[in-house]
Every structure is written in structure tokens, then in C-alpha cells.
UniProtKB/TrEMBL annotation:
InterPro entries: Alkaline_phosphatase_core_sf. The keyword Ligase does not apply. It comes from the Bacteria. This is Sulfatase. SUPFAM superfamilies: Alkaline phosphatase-like.
Length: 544
């Protein structure tokens, strides 16, 4: 081509060089959060590019080629990690952990399958793999091309490097800013150091956590002194998926949820139930429900998979396990989100577990949720709570209808119409398509609020219909929804409430300062979620 079309060849070479330069600059300046991804973020002078050019200038030919290859591959890997950070910040409100987070990609694939269907999920996975490979290859080729140019035009490259280096040092010394950020940038090195620190912290965390987990003030408490204030009660612990503080206090969606809580408080009052509420700060946000569940039940701060596996394979007494230890309760789990073997049930002290495979559901999935919350509660009544005789029940129930992507959604029907769930086929067909909902942020928030209202209505309706004088309900959110709903800088707080027919149950927590009713209000106490187990066991344990 060069011989026949020299002008076109020169133009193509120049375009390729410009593209290679832009690709490398973008990689060096790429932020790791979507909120920082603005045009101004790329109007910087990256010190890594200046240092890299200087190193390539002084190296002999063969080492220079090796250095360019390694630099290109490293820069490509750094870009991939930056993109992973963006996704994790957007969904889980934290960066990607390069040691512990690989197992979460299976959950991401499951979510894609629910939101876009099996074919869409497979296409998305293939597309991501191709993009990652293309990025690594193109970044390596780009650095290689720039390395060859530096070698061929060493005099010009030396002068340019010296000028840019002088400008960078001057701007750094003067604190020169552009669009509110320093013009002299060193972002790539800082991010690489941050990731190295994350790896070190993740490795060290296992030792630190083992020491924390070994300290348990309730380990040696005799069974006869545990939970004496709840003996004879049917106690239900219920997690509502993605039920966060934003649902109650974000003006873009609080009207629906506040109305549901106000109505629920009135209905419970009429049925003779009393309620108090507050907030807990979850160990996770946007996802990772199992981390919140284990934090709440274990009294330990569970923020990653390593901690989760460590605690659930240990002999630490969980809150629900304390009920089993007394011998005074039958312990049951209703887990509609579980669709395979769940050995963690042993840690939670559950005598029997009913999951998506044995709850008898014959209706459609509502996106990620395998069955509507009302069906899960109806099954609990049919299979265990409504059966006479035996010991009181301690139950852990997970309500999943408010799980992302919040479309299509079920709706409340008569309890006598729930049946085997086939009645939900028509409701599912009439529901919204998640792909359409997620095209509009306002729709996403609206459907999220609707899902929370449905979950609350299901639970409150269940208690008012099937609750007894010995019923005690503790319900809470596991975490806040994704940032697409909450926006930036939302807390990790979730509402928590205790409902009981027997007023003396709430008298036990008088000193907690919780607010009357299901809606805690903006001034309610806020505790870390891992503090709840010990407070609860203390409040309802034997008193000297």
C-alpha cells in the first residue's frame, strides 16, 4: 500500500498514531467512578506518560520492546480494573476487591439472565470477554507503536518529554487546576498503589477477622438464660430485599412507602399489635444480601466473601441459632431465593429450610424473584405456622419481590386465592418489561418504591390476618438499593422494626429509644447492624 498509495499510507499511519496516543492517555487518566467520568477528567498531564517515555528513551532496543509489551499489558489490565471499580461503585457502593470478588460474577450473570433473558445474558458475557481481550491487545499494540516512534524520533521525543516534564513539575508546584482538579496528574500510579493496598488488606483481613470472631460474650451463656423474655412466643425474623432508608426519606419516592408504613401502623394497631422502629447501618449496599444477613445474625461486620465463608463455617452462635440452642423453639427458614444446596442453614440454626424447590410454587418468576412475597408467606402459613401443636416457632423469612430490577411486579390478591401460584401468570403477563423500565431513571425509582410497598403490604397483611397474641415480628431491610435509585452519597442505613401483640415485649427495649410505629422518622437512632445481635440477646435474656 505504501508503494502504490504513499499519501494514503502516511495518513493512515498518522491516524493510527493519534489513536494510539489517545488510547494510552485515556487509560492513564481514566477515573474509577462513573461520577468522575467527565470530559474534564481527561484534560490533564499524566506523569506516568512522561516517566514512561523517559524510560523508553534510555533503554536499549530489546529491553525497550519488552518494557513496552509489559507496560501495554499492565495499562490494559489497569483499565479493566478501573471499569470493574465503576461497576462495583455503581451497584455495591465500593470498589472491586481483586482478591475476593471474583465469585460475584456468577450473581451478575444471573441478574443479566433475569433482566435480559438467557440469550441476552450469554450475548452480554461474550461481548464483555471480547471487549476485555480487545482492550488488552489494543493497549499493548498502542504502547508498542508509541515506543517505536520514540525510538525513531528520539531527539524530538527527548525535547517533548523535557518540556512536558517541566510543565508538570511547575503545575504541581503551583497547584494549577483545571475544571476543579490538578492539571498535573498522577492518577494511574495512585490507583495502582490503591489496588496493591486492597490486596494486602484483603489478605491480612482473614487474620484480623478470625481474632474478632473468636470474641463472643454470649458463647458461654447457659441455654436456660437465653431469650427468656420471649419464651412461648412465635418469633419471625424477616428481611425485605433492598428496603433502605432512601425508600422512606428520598422525596423522589418516599410518598408510596411512607403511605404504606402509615397505613400498616394503623392496621396493626387495630389488630392489637404494637410496633417500634429505628435504623441499622448495613455492611453492604446495592447487593450482597447474604453479607447483611450474616452481619445481623452473627454480630460481626461481614463485608466480603472471605468473612462470610469464615463465619458461616464456624461454630459462632447466630441470633437465630440462639433460639435453637435453648431447645424451646422449632426453627424454620423460608428461603425463596435459594435454589440449590444451602449448607449455611446449619450456621443459622434452622431445623428445616423451605426454598424455591420445595415451597410448591407453580407460577412464573417475577424477574429475579422466584415467587411473590405473598406466596412465600402463604406457604409459611400452610406448611408450618398454621399447623397446630408442638413448640413455638422461630422463623427466618426472606422476602424477595423487591429485588432489582423491580419489573414485572406482583400485586396483592386475596389470601384464599394464592393457591399454588398459577394465579400469578396473568399478573406477570400484565407487568412491565425491565428493559423498558431501566431506560428511564424516574421509572426505576417508581417501580422500586412500588416493590417495597408490595413487600410491606404482604408482610403487614400476613400479620394482621394470621398473627396471634404470641406473635413477635422483627423485620428490616438488608441493604439500600443500587445508586441508580438512591443517587450518590446515600447512607447504608436500613429500617428495622419490632412488632408484638404483647406490650411487655416492647417494654423490654424501652431504653433503646426507638420510635413508635413502623416509620422511624429522620431522628430515630442508628446502630451498626452487627450490634443488633448482642443488644437483642441482652434485652430478652434472663435478668439478674
Amino acid at each position: 500500500m505504501r508503494g502504490r498509495y504513499p499519501a494514503a499510507a502516511r495518513a493512515a499511519a498518522r491516524v493510527t498514531t493519534v489513536l494510539a496516543t489517545l488510547l494510552v492517555l485515556c487509560a492513564l487518566l481514566l477515573p474509577n467512578q462513573l461520577t468522575a467520568l467527565t470530559p474534564g477528567a481527561f484534560l490533564r498531564i499524566p506523569v506516568e506518560g512522561i516517566v514512561g517515555a523517559a524510560v523508553l528513551l534510555v533503554l536499549p532496543p530489546r529491553p525497550r520492546r519488552v518494557a513496552a509489551l509489559l507496560a501495554g499489558a499492565g495499562l490494559g489490565l489497569l483499565t479493566v480494573l478501573n471499569c470493574l471499580d465503576m461497576g462495583f461503585f455503581a451497584v455495591l457502593d465500593r470498589p472491586f476487591d481483586p482478591v475476593l470478588d471474583w465469585s460475584l460474577f456468577g450473581d451478575a450473570e444471573s441478574f443479566l439472565e433475569d433482566a435480559a433473558g438467557p440469550t441476552g445474558a450469554v450475548a452480554a458475557v461474550i461481548g464483555v470477554v471480547v471487549l476485555v481481550l480487545a482492550l488488552l491487545v489494543s493497549m499493548t499494540l498502542a504502547v508498542g507503536r508509541l515506543s517505536r516512534l520514540i525510538s525513531r524520533h528520539s531527539a524530538l521525543a527527548t525535547r517533548t518529554t523535557l518540556v512536558l516534564g517541566t510543565v508538570w513539575v511547575t503545575c504541581a508546584a503551583l497547584g494549577t487546576q483545571l475544571a476543579g482538579a490538578p492539571l498535573a496528574a498522577g492518577r494511574a500510579v495512585a490507583l495502582a498503589e490503591d489496588r496493591a493496598d486492597r490486596v494486602r488488606v484483603s489478605v491480612e483481613d482473614e487474620r484480623v477477622f478470625a481474632k474478632e470472631a473468636a470474641a463472643d460474650s454470649f458463647r458461654d451463656v447457659p441455654a436456660g438464660r437465653l431469650l427468656t423474655g420471649l419464651r412461648g412466643k412465635d418469633v419471625i425474623f424477616t428481611f425485605i430485599e433492598s428496603y433502605g432508608r432512601s425508600a422512606l426519606q428520598d422525596p423522589r419516592m418516599d410518598a408510596q412507602v411512607d403511605a404504606a408504613l402509615a397505613d400498616g401502623t394503623r392496621r396493626l394497631d387495630r389488630a392489637g399489635f404494637h410496633s417500634q422502629s429505628a435504623f441499622l447501618t448495613s455492611s453492604t449496599a446495592g447487593g450482597g444480601s447474604w453479607l447483611a444477613h450474616s452481619t445481623f445474625m452473627s454480630g460481626l461486620w461481614i463485608t466480603n466473601q472471605q468473612r462470610y465463608h469464615t463465619v458461616t463455617s464456624s461454630d459462632r452462635m447466630s441470633l437465630t441459632g440462639a433460639f435453637r440452642r435453648t431447645g424451646a423453639w422449632q426453627t424454620v427458614g423460608i428461603m425463596p431465593g435459594v435454589n440449590r444446596s444451602w449448607p449455611e442453614g446449619k450456621f443459622y440454626g434452622l431445623d428445616s429450610v423451605y426454598d424455591s424447590r420445595n415451597l410448591g410454587y407453580r407460577g412464573p418468576k417475577f424477574s429475579w424473584s422466584s415467587m411473590p412475597d405473598q406466596y412465600s408467606l402463604a406457604s409459611f402459613e400452610r406448611l408450618r405456622h398454621g399447623k397446630p401443636g408442638g413448640k413455638p416457632l422461630m422463623s427466618e423469612i426472606i422476602l424477595t419481590s423487591s429485588h432489582n430490577p423491580w419489573a414485572p411486579l406482583p400485586k396483592m390478591i386475596g389470601w384464599n386465592k394464592v393457591g399454588d401460584g398459577s394465579v400469578y401468570n396473568a399478573i406477570h403477563r400484565a407487568g412491565k418489561d425491565p428493559k423498558e423500565v431501566w431506560q428511564d431513571p424516574d421509572q426505576v425509582r417508581t417501580e422500586y418504591a412500588r416493590s417495597i410497598r408490595y413487600s410491606l403490604d404482604s408482610l403487614i397483611s400476613y400479620v394482621t390476618k394470621y398473627g396471634k397474641k404470641n406473635t413477635v415480628l422483627v423485620f428490616l431491610g438488608d441493604h439500600q438499593p443500587v445508586k441508580a435509585v438512591t443517587g450518590e452519597n446515600a447512607s447504608h442505613d436500613v429500617p428495622v422494626a419490632i412488632v408484638a401483640h404483647d406490650r411487655s415485649v416492647l417494654d423490654r427495649i424501652h431504653g433503646w429509644g426507638w420510635k413508635d410505629g413502623l416509620n422511624p422518622g429522620p431522628k430515630a437512632p442508628v446502630w451498626r447492624m452487627d450490634s443488633f445481635r448482642d443488644r437483642f440477646l441482652t434485652a430478652y435474656g434472663a435478668r439478674s
